[in-house]
Amino acid sequence: MRVFNRVAIAGGLAVAAMTVSTGAALADPPSALTPARTDIVGVGSDTTQGVLNHIAAGYNAQPAGSGRLYSFDATGPSPITTKQDCAPITRPNGSSAGISALAADAAVPPCIDFARSSRPKKTDGTEDGLAFLAMAKDGVTWAAQATTNAPATLSAAQLASVYSCTAPPGTRSAAPAAPSSSPTCLRSARAPAPSGSRPSASPTRRSAGA
User: Fold this and answer.
1) Every domain of the chain and the residues it spans
2) Which is nearest to 113 in space by CA: 47, 203, 200?
3) Does domain 4-137+197-205 have CATH number 3.40.1000?
4) Do residues 46 and 94 lie in contact, with contact meaning Cβ atoms separated by under 8 Å?
């Protein structure tokens, strides 16, 4: 077995992280520490590394159990040694690099337990030996100051139109000081993400023989 016991542990990490409000987020393992073979270690994309760093900080703040959680950042000193008695590897920088490192790891117990990915699973069959598990799928809302001209409510369609610069004038203000002929637009503050970029999914290896 390589996977499902790891997945079960990872499934409880968010709860542990949410109960911890102090402590610095981990990036790489602490200096001079090489994770044990029983620890849970991941590599890969920078997209979700911040989330995993905070999850690791919360998880590792709990009473010591059978293993700790470490997530190597996408960039930093290279090569890295992911666990004790594992051969050094070039630091995986990005989704595909992390997935490739995960797929290439044939050690028992594994030297890499999961890869952070911002892309979905390939459909050409080359990644059929990996299970891709979606994360961070909860909805994102918006907030405004207590005293503001912003509307009290905005629908998802209205928010999308403001972001895409198709909202009619005055959408941003419940009582605009002066009419405007220009559409409400946030593009200057935040450019739209490239098409198809950075969906959040983390692959982890299936059990042997699965």
Assistant:
1) 4-137+197-205
2) 203
3) no
4) yes
Residue whose token pair is 């001209």: 149
What's 101's DSSP letter? H
Residue 103 main-chain phi, psi, to 5 deg: -65, -30
Residue whose C-alpha is closest to residue 160's, from 180, 140, 145, 178: 140
How much is the pTM?
Answer: 0.62
CA distances from 210 to 101, 153, 174 (A): 20, 48, 57
The first and second tokens of residue 27, run together, are 């990036």
Task: Give the CB-side neighbour count of residue 86, counting CA atoms within 13 A.
Answer: 27
pLDDT along the chain (210 residues), means of 10: 31 31 64 92 92 90 84 96 97 95 94 92 91 79 79 81 76 43 48 45 44
pLDDT of residue 68: 92
Residue 175: partners with Cβ closer than 8 Å, 6 or more residues away: 149
DSSP 143-155: ---SS-SS-S---
* Angle (CA) 84 38 14, round 5°: 120
* Per-residue tokens: 68: 């700790």
Residue with tokens 């994770």: 35
- Tokens representing 28? 């790489």
DSSP class of residue 180 equals -
